[in-house]
Write a structure and sequence with these properties.
There is one protein chain. This protein has 184 residues and is mainly beta. It has one domain. Helix content is 14%, strand content 40%. It is built from three helices and twelve strands. Strands 1, 2, 3, 4, 5, 6, 7, 8, 9, 10, 11 and 12 form a twelve-stranded antiparallel β-sheet that branches.
Length: 184
């Protein structure tokens, strides 16, 4: 416990209090939250100003992911008792720039799909998209369902946002293992 407090105090001293208060400032932790409120730290994100927007880089926490070879492709999955949550790296061009009014690039970097823990392969229609909203404390992602087959073909040249609102369907949080994503 003392080491954690020392790490937090050092980070605050290095980044300043304003970076911790802003939803897109400094370094943040990405958490997946289950239905009982239990959190799993899956990554850290470092935000840096770039003109009017913020650029970001993600450092994934490999310790919480298991390697799976599903449907002839490698996946990194968080294993749950009934479902596995597998990260789907966005396969096309992305700017990795955001602001509080446009978090789409980050949403594309946080794509997952789920599969039953006893299932052999994956079903691409079990896509998970966390729609992000900025709060005073950070970012909150609400789970939406999507068909990942929509991303099987490259988007038109110059179209960095191939998914539309019609492609995303707000999910019932009670029906999923990890219904929330937090960045704080």
């Amino acid at each position: 416990m003392g080491k954690l407090l020392k790490t937090v105090a050092t980070a605050v001293a290095l980044t300043g209090p304003s970076a911790w208060a802003e939803p897109l400032g400094g370094q943040k932790t990405v958490w997946l939250v289950d239905g009982q409120g239990q959190r799993t730290a899956i990554a850290t994100i470092a935000f840096e100003p770039r003109g009017e927007r913020m650029s970001y880089s993600i450092d994934w926490n490999d310790e919480v992911f298991a390697d799976h070879f599903l449907s002839m492709r490698p996946f990194k999955c968080i294993e749950g008792p009934d479902k596995h949550w597998c990260h789907v790296p966005y396969p096309y061009e992305i700017n990795r720039q955001v602001d509080v009014g446009d978090l789409t690039d980050l949403e594309y970097d946080l794509l997952f799909l789920w599969k039953g823990s006893t299932e052999y392969g994956i079903n691409m229609w079990n896509g998970v998209y966390y729609r992000l909203d900025a709060t005073d404390d950070g970012l909150v992602g609400r789970l939406h369902e999507m068909d990942m087959d929509l991303l099987s073909a490259p988007p038109e040249p110059g179209d960095l946002r191939p998914l539309s609102d019609m492609d995303l369907h707000e999910a019932d949080p009670e029906s999923h293992w990890l219904p929330e994503l937090l960045i704080e």
